[in-house]
């Protein structure tokens, strides 16, 4: 049947998914696929939760929509209380939107407005990192450093965003360089960028504490984030962390920064917040930033028709309650090492897997043509497309991307199963991933 949807590609029509239960998704032709990446690290409690469906339906029956210029709603208030009621790391207020990109847009705008409110309107610059992804709206795309996704929109992207090197030890830590020396080199680079822009002109440094799709679950070396935050503090700039993919429990703690020894001034979350049941993201802002606004105009000059949507908040609230009641972040913390060991056992000596990296239930394999030289496959090989087809053939859904090394070269695949995945399911995921990789290599 002809499709009237503008799919991601007009050349390939995707399979049609019709239902989901736990870690499994059923396709229209009856096949069942194991969803080992929660789509794009989204489905954190698995598919088909009747509790969440009921919570959304009940809210729909009570009040589906209330414009936030006039009203608040119970689910939005309760979700904010659950997220920032105890002011984790000084984060005191939540702003609910409908996607990760919108959470980043709100973060950029609030950070800018904060400095206008406190009498520093000359601050107009943001520093992000290369090989990062913060979303696809123009502001979020400008913040990110994903060369492939930016390329054709480059002329439309604001010049107020510049980029420094990521912390990406596999490719960019030098031979014999210690973690401390690498951190110092990156802190010096950030300092130099502040100096180039004029330190008093910078609003914020923006980073993913664990890089997601841009380079594949890339964790920073110890000491990196405290060193970056020190540079920001020296110049009175903010630290904005994008935990849209890595946060909300996926990496084994509620927030990744809890494992990195820093607290953000503003944080963006999404994906795992609603677990795929509802489109929702949130900006979490610190007391410092909110106080700046309170002492100034008091009104955030930003908003969307669907911000704080009651159905989205009701769905996310139930997802978060389930995560709490079933102690699912503790499960990720406990079973993350089991997933890691299984991946290491299967791929640790694989000649075409250069690195296995990640944390919690957020892992990636980076593929190489030559392991010794850490040399990637040529982009013309189209590794990602072959891997996607091989995965579906092996009955598994994983999340492959390319441009891993520098935005152009390199291929990786992300494994990000639901938090309630069992040990037996972990074994099956790794088994199916093994046959996926074998089939991919046979096809290229
Ligand atoms: C780290 C990160 N930031 C931002 C986004 C954008 O989120 P969304 O696709 O919901 O707009 C993503 C999406 O993949 C992401 O992984």
Q: Can you tell me about this structure?
A:
This protein has 444 residues and is an alpha/beta fold. The chain folds into 2 domains: 17-48 and 327-443, Aspartate Aminotransferase, domain 1, CATH 3.90.1150; 53-325, Type I PLP-dependent aspartate aminotransferase-like (Major domain) (Aspartate Aminotransferase, domain 2, 3-Layer(aba) Sandwich), CATH 3.40.640. It is built from 14 helices and 17 strands. It has a 7-stranded mixed beta sheet with strand order 4-12-11-10-7-5-6, sandwiched between helices. A 4-stranded mixed beta sheet has the order 1-2-3-15. It has a 4-stranded antiparallel beta sheet with strand order 13-14-17-16. Strand 16 and strand 17 (411-415) form a beta hairpin. The chain starts with 16 loop residues before the first strand and ends with a helix. The mean pLDDT is 97. Residues 40, 99-101, 104, 133-135, 208, 212-213, 242, 244-245, 270, 281 line the site of pyridoxal-5'-phosphate.
